[in-house]
Amino acid sequence: MSVQSIDRAFNIIELLSLEPQGLTMTEISKRLDLHKSTVHRLLSSMRNRGYIEQSHSAGKYRLGLGFIELASLYLNSLELKIEAQPFLHHLTKLTGQTAFLAIRDGRDLVYIDKVETFDSLRRYKIIGRRRPLHATSLGKALLSGLPDREIEELYKDKPMEKLTDKTITSYDGLTREIEAIRDRGWAIDDEENEPGTHCVGAPIFDYRDRAIASLSIAWEASVFPDLTWEAVAPDVVRCARDVSIKMGNIRYK
Fold first, then answer.
1. Where are the domains of the chain?
2. Hey, what's the torsion of the CAs at 27, 30, 31, 36, to 10 degrees?
3. Fold category of 3-63 in CATH
4. What would the mean pLDDT of 103-113 be, rounded to a whole number?
5. What digits encode the pLDDT tens for the residues 183-235?
6. Which of 153, 168, 182, 252 is deepest in the core (most CB within 10 A)?
């Protein structure tokens, strides 16, 4: 899709946002001074993806449920950041390490927040960046909260990127790791994402008991050679549970 087509699609979206009862294709064409064939093509594409709905009785187009889903995801992540912030600060203070917060998007995690200390591991401009779920403690913690069927759909007979010599790249290896995470309640990253970096992560659950996010701490193994996963995992798990409670989860109450 060209830049011009994207611009026109947004013009249609913005126009329909002002018309809750919807508009016909002819009305949209006239309002935006676009040819009907162009409007039809753009509406069809957005309707196929759930962002536009058409009334069969009146033939009018209006915004679809796809926008509600996007807005819900945005609001949830915004609420999550607000609720998690004090706990991330507390976790950083307890451990002396950088704390991270992430959500899932397909087979990737997306960093949405971090709290640093002066002398801890620093990750500049990491907010919004993506990493593979299978190669991080944040990602594996998220996967541990998914149903087995969904994990199979994501990874069965599909390649997994190898980021370091320690990255898990087999489906069987990943499922064994996920079972271990479920048993102990926390995930590790043993230089699987970056050489020399250790991490511990735990999942965050919402009021429906769904894994909606995860948090972690990370440190350079060479700088903190005596710091172990077992030593910091209880603090990470406790922090994730506290955020889960704030997000309405009753499992830990």
1. 3-63, 71-246
2. 80
3. Arc Repressor Mutant, subunit A (1.10.10)
4. 91
5. 999 999 999 999 999 999 999 998 888 899 999 999 999 989 999 999 999 99
6. 168
Closest by alpha carbon to 89, among 108, 129, 118, 116?
116
**pTM of the model as a whole:** 0.71
Digit-coded pLDDT (tens) for 119-141: 555 555 678 888 999 999 999 99
Give the closest residue to 249 by CA, choosing from 222, 215, 210, 223.
210
Q: Where do the DSSP E strands lie in 37-173?
A: 52-54, 61-63, 98-105, 108-115, 130-132
Specify whether the CB–CB gap between 142 and 213 falls below 8 A. yes
First and final C-alpha spacing in the chain: 49
Closest by alpha carbon to 248, among 214, 205, 211? 205
Within 8 A by CB and 6+ apart from 142, the residues are 102, 103, 104, 109, 133, 203, 211, 213, 214
Residue with tokens 């700088």: 223
Contact 236, 216 (CB under 8 A): yes
Kindly report the CATH class assigned to 71-246: alpha beta
- Residues 6+ positions from 16 with CB-CB distance below 8 Å: 22, 23, 28, 52, 61, 62, 63
The pLDDT value given to residue 120: 52
Q: What mean pLDDT comes out for the span 32-38?
A: 91
